Amino acid sequence: KMTQQMRDLQLAQARKPPGPSSPNAAKRLYRNLSGKFRVNYTSFDEGSLVGRGEKEKLRKSYLFQSNAALFEAVELQDLDRVQEMLKHYSPEELDLNTPNSEGLLPLDIAIMTNNAPIARALLQAGAKESPHFVSLESRSLHLSTLVREAEQRVNELMAQVVNEAPNADCSEKEKQLKAWEWRFRLYKRMKAGFEHARVPDAPSSVHLSVASSTSLQVTFWEPLSVNSAVVTKYKVEWSCSPTFSPLLGEAVIDKLKDLHFTIQGLVSGTAYHVRVSAYNMKGWGPPQASMPPFAIPSNWREYDGRAPRRRGQAEALDHLLGQVKTVHQHCICHEPCKNQPQSRKHSVSKSLKHLFHPGSKFLKTLKRGLYLTAIFYKDDNILVTHEDQIPVVEIDDTYSCLLMQDFLWLTKVSCMWDEILWLRQCVTVSQSSCSCILQTRFKMLLAISQMQGLLGIQDLGQVFFEPIKDKQGNILIVTLKEVKTNQTFESVRWVPICKLQSGRKSVSSPEEPTALDTLLISLQDKLAYHQRSSHALSPGLYLGYLKLCSAVDQIRVLVPEQLPNILCHVKIRSNPNISREEWEWLQKMASVEEPVPTEPETDRSQNPLFQELQVAIKELMTLVNIPLQEAKDFRLYSQEVLDFGDQVSFLLLLPPSDDVCTAPGQNNPYTPRSGFLTLPLQIFELGEER
C-alpha cells in the first residue's frame, strides 16, 4: 500500500489533468509532439478560436501535453529533446517543478537513473527535487511501492493475455503489457540507482577571495568522483573560528549555472573561514575548506585611508554648470518669447517657402571650407536626404585649416547636445571681444543647431576621433549615432549602406578623393569603430599598458582597434577588488625598485596576485608584440588602482620613464605595429567617460 504521505500527494494531484492512460499512450504522445516543439502556443490565436476562455483552455491543454512529453523525454534519456524543450518553453510553461501522478519530478527521474547530462540541463533550467521526499526512508519506500505496483500490474496483464483468446481486446492488452514491462524496468533501475548511490565527495576545490571591504567571494568546483549521484545543491558556511564553532552563517545554492557565491555584510578587518559541501539524493557530503584557509574583507584604499577619486565630482560639475547658467540668466536663451517673435508664423514652416530657404538645406557638394556631417545608422541602413546624400551642413566657408583646439572643444560640446541653444546664445553675448576663436566656435554651434533642426533630432551622437580632410581644402567633422528603434523622419529616409556606396557617382579622381568620397569609402570602418567604442568590459581586474606619443598640438594614447575606449589590456582575474594585503605587497615591491617580475621566486610562489600578474604580463607583452626580455625595465603604477565603477579596475604597466611618452621624431621601441591605433588623449578621455 501507498504510505500516507503518498496518499496525500495523490489527493493533491487529483486536481491536475490526468496523464496518458498508459506508458504506451505517453510514448505515442511524445512522438506526436516531437515535431511541434518549435511552435509556440500563441499560434492557436490565429484561426478559428472564438472565445478567450476557449483559447486559454486549449493553451493549458497543449502545455500539459508538453509537460507529459518532457517526462517521457527524460524517461527515455533523450538529451537532445530535453534540451530542445527547455530552450523553447519556460519552466512555468513546462510545469517543470510539478510532480506527475507517481509523485516524481523530471529531475527525480534523471538523478535516480544517474543521467548526469539531463540532470545538469534540468538544474540549469531551474528544476528542483520533489519536496515530498523528506528523508531517505520516504524516498526508498516510495520507489519500492512504485516497483511493487508496476510488477503487480505486469502480472495481472500477463495472466489476462495468457488466458484470453486472441481478439482486439487481447491485442490492446499485449500493448499495455509491453508498456508496463518497460515502466517496471524503469522503476527497478531508479530503485537500484538510489540504493547504490552514496553521498557526494567534497567539492574538488574551493577558492576564497576578497570582494570588498564587507564581502568575500567563494568560487568552487564539482566533486571529482564519478560514481556518486548527481549533485543538486551546495552549502557555503562561514565562521570566525577555524573549527566553525560557532557558525556565523550559511547559504544553500541550488542554481548551479555558476558555482560561486558572495558572502555579504561582513566586518572589515575580521578574518573569516569558509567551507563548502555538496548534496545529492543521499544527503550532504563532507565539507571542503577554502584556499586560502581564511580571508579578511578589505580594500586597497584602507592602506592609507584614501577617498575614491571621483567621489562628488559629478555633483560638483552639475553645481558649477548651474552657477554658470545663473550668471547668464539675462541671456535671450532664457526668454524664448524674444528669441522667436515669429514663432506663430513659423509653425507652418513645413511649406515650400521653408524648404527652399537657403539656410535650411543640406549640402550636396563641398566647396573649400569646414563642414559637419551626421551619420545615423541602424543595422545595415543609414539615414540620407531625399537626394540620397549624407546629411551635411556648412560650418565656415573661409576656414581652410582646423585647429586641434577647436575640434577638441567640439568633442566636449557633444556631451551637451541638448544645451546647444543656450551655449550658442551665451557665446553670442561674449562676441564683443571679436575673438576669432569665439567666432569659429559660434559658427560650429550654429551648424549644430541647423543639423538638429533639419533632422528633428537633438542627440547627434559621438564625434569621430579625427576629421576628414582632402586636397581641395575641405574639412569634414563626422558624428556617429546608432538608432536602436524604428523611427521615421520628415527630411531624411533610410537606405541600405551598400546601395548608397554603389549608387554615388564620384566627382573626384581616385588619387585625390574628396572628403565626401573618403567618408563613403571608409564608412564601414567608422561604423565599426563607433560600435566597438561602446563595448563594455566584463567585471574583473585588468592589467593595462599605458603608451603615449606627442605631436605639436596634441598627445595621443595607444588603444586596441577592437576596444578603442580602453587602454591595451589583458584580464588578470574576475574579481575586481584589490585587498589591503595585496596593495601592501605591491607597495613593498615598488619601494625596493624591483623590475616587473617575470620569473617566480620561492618566497613569492604562494602569493596568488604575484602568480596572476606573471601570467598577465606575459600575455600583455605578447599582445603588444614586445619581447618579454624588454619588459625587465617596465614598472607597475603603484600610486593607485584605477576603478571604473564597482565592477572593473585596472593596474597599469608602464614602460621606462623616458619612453612612456614618445616625442616627435624619437625612436619608439614600445609601440606595436598592427591591430592598434592612437587616439587624441582628450578623445580617449571622453570615450572612457561614455
From TrEMBL:
PROSITE patterns tied to this protein: FN3 (PS50853)
Per its UniProt entry, which superkingdom is the organism in? Answer: Eukaryota
Segments spanning the bilayer are none
A cellular component term (GO) from this record? spindle
Give the start-end ranges of region Disordered: 1-25
Please report the stretch or stretches of sequence annotated as the Fibronectin type-III domain: 202-299
Task: State the organism named in the record.
Answer: Molothrus ater (Brown-headed cowbird)
Alphabetized SMART domains for the sequence: FN3
Xref: Pfam families: fn3
Signal peptide residues are none
Query: What is this protein called in UniProt?
Result: ANKF1 protein
**GO BP:** establishment of mitotic spindle orientation; regulation of establishment of bipolar cell polarity
Check the record and name the CDD domains matching this protein: FN3 (cd00063)
Q: Which InterPro entries match?
A: ANKFN1 (IPR039269), Ankyrin_rpt-contain_sf (IPR036770), FN3_dom (IPR003961), FN3_sf (IPR036116), Ig-like_fold (IPR013783)
